[in-house]
Amino acid sequence: MEITNAQYEGDEIREGNHGITATIDGQEMSIPLDSGNRHYAEILKQVAAGTLTIAEAD
Amino acid sequence: MALSKVNPSLVQNFGRRRLNINGAMQVAQRATTATISDGANEGYRTLDRWRALFSSSAGGVATMSQVNGGPNFKFANSLKVDVTTADTSLDVNHAITLQYKFEDQDIANSGWEYRDPNSKLNISFWAKSTKAGTYCVFLYSQNNTSYNIVKEYTLAADTWTYVSLSFKGSNSQIAFNNDNSSGLIVGWTLAAGSNRYENVVEGEWILTSSGQAQGRYATSNQVNFFDSTSNVYEFTGVQIEVGDTATDFEHRSYAEELSLCQRYFEKDNINGGSGTHRIAINKGSTTSSYYFAVPYKVTKRALPTVTISQVYDSDLTISTHASANTDSHLGLKNATGGSTNTRALAEINWSVDSEL
Questions:
Q1: Which of B174, B242, B268, B328 is most buried, judged by most C-beta within 10 A?
Q2: What is the pLDDT of residues B31-53, one digit of tens each?
Q3: Testing the interface with B: which of A31, A33, A40 to mutate, by most B Cβ within 10 A?
Q4: ipTM score here?
Q5: Cα–Cα distance between B322 and A31 in angstroms, integer?
Q6: B327 interfacial to chain A (CB closer than 8 Å)
């Protein structure tokens, strides 16, 4: 799975991060912060391996 | 017929025997054909619930398709893998497999006494390949400590063959929780390097982390299906069921299979994919965000990944509303700004993915 351009998603209503936008295998996606989600699990794996960083929310 | 004439031993296990979804290759929400290879092109690309995996950056390229026809008129579709770039020198860790993943709870509640070697999980299917030889099917228990078990089957060239393989439970080695996480992988091996069959004894469970610690997907007899661009593999009629013998394939309607698949993937397949999801509002006197919710047809296994493409934008740019996305509806919002007191219109396509 190729993941680039990862950035946390903020929210106007609730504080904090609520998701991650990223380009996965060439498509822009919105990934929930849920360990049961396979894309989020892969993001955490690549962050732990030092091959991916997640930018802060705008 | 009087009830007394029905032999209970013949009917007690009828109905809902097939544990897997889309075994007749009916549903392909994402696409009916795609290129598969290591990296961005692996995973779930065509038929629902079926993924292609190029382990340890295995080489080779193929076209994976849903095709019409099968071994007989009982099946209208098959899954086809057509090699377009060969890999003739497999690395020891390489493996190329087609996989089906079960949720933990679907095995835990299946009725399989998986801690008893006398209790069996049977896997039956039809397969055909231009390349004759020995192929393998494996189980990969993922919970807690991982274990594998492999069984072989043999194909003659260009001949549809019915295969039935019985996998035994293990004494106390494998475990399945009663939850929605990934529990059991069933895999069809097309190529495997030597570490993928290290110390494998056909039909015996092996600790994945032993030896070179690679998932065991084959025996040493496994052919390298990816050794030629002439090779084509097809299979269908996959039935995974509890018991030591295969029963007739349990046929289901397209509508039922689609609904079952939508627990893992759903898209707004409006007019068969040619239409769009239209959102129209009157913005009133504010340029702040507006919020929308689109209910899913089926509750998702877990919070899904969302993909949106905007097809048309008239003062209404749509994006996901992350904090409002749930397992039962899609949260959307429009970008702030633009005009007030105007009719705003957007057309989008969306899909959500909560695959294992």
A1: B174
A2: 999 999 999 899 999 999 999 99
A3: A31
A4: 0.95
A5: 8
A6: no
